[in-house]
Specification:
Radius of gyration: 15 Å
Order of helices and strands: EHEHEEHEHEEH
Shape: globular
CATH superfamily: Flavodoxin domain
CATH architecture: 3-Layer(aba) Sandwich
Strand content: 15-25%
Number of strands: 7
Length: 190
């Protein structure tokens, strides 16, 4: 059985630094999702520089419209945030706040979508607490967090430009997150 609709997984995250560790982690998860047969799209940190989310202001700039439409069309998401001072970055949090614009959609918020989550931070405490916060936000937005989430300590693991890392376990974790999102999205599409 084939679906006429292409199944899409959207990746959101990273930091403002080009080639950041969190963006490289996100790319690994997206590559694994794509290998499962879904179409992927990445909205990296530099494209998440948006005005602070405000429900009272209905106008959206071009980047915000791209983000909102990307989430609207996505069958699954992968979100990777750097951990700053024990929590997710303001950049990623603000982007997730824009999902509020989907509240009136037939499929509101992240309803019915698997959401793979990972946090990359310099230290275990920030990596773990950031992942916890991402899961809480995903649940509040009606998304289904994948069973596996990634807490990655960038003091111990370094990602390279070629899609690998100094710690193979981190790569396996990120790949499994991408696979879980893709498999859920493909199952729901049929």
């Amino acid at each position: 059985m084939t679906s006429a609709k292409k199944v899409k997984v959207l990746g959101i995250g990273g930091s403002l630094r080009e080639g950041s560790q969190s963006e490289r982690a996100l790319r690994i998860a997206l590559a694994a999702a794509e290998e499962r047969g879904v179409v992927t799209e990445l909205i990296p940190g530099p494209e998440l520089v948006l005005p602070f989310y405000d429900t009272a202001i209905p106008e959206r700039d071009e980047r915000a419209r791209k983000l909102i439409e990307g989430v609207r069309q996505a069958d699954g998401l992968i979100v990777v945030s750097p951990g700053y001072h024990g929590g997710l970055s303001g950049l990623v949090k603000n982007a997730l706040d824009y999902i509020e614009d989907l509240r009136e959609d037939a499929r509101p918020y992240l309803d019915g979508r698997a959401v793979g989550l990972a946090a990359v931070a310099y230290g275990w405490q920030a990596a773990v607490t950031t992942l916890e916060q991402l899961r809480t936000i995903t649940h509040a937005l009606r998304g289904w967090s994948t069973p596996l989430g990634g807490s990655i300590n960038s003091a111990e693991t370094k990602f390279d430009e070629g899609g690998g890392a100094s710690d193979e376990k981190s790569v396996r974790t990120l790949r499994l997150i991408g696979e879980q999102v893709a498999e859920h999205a493909l199952l729901r599409a049929h």
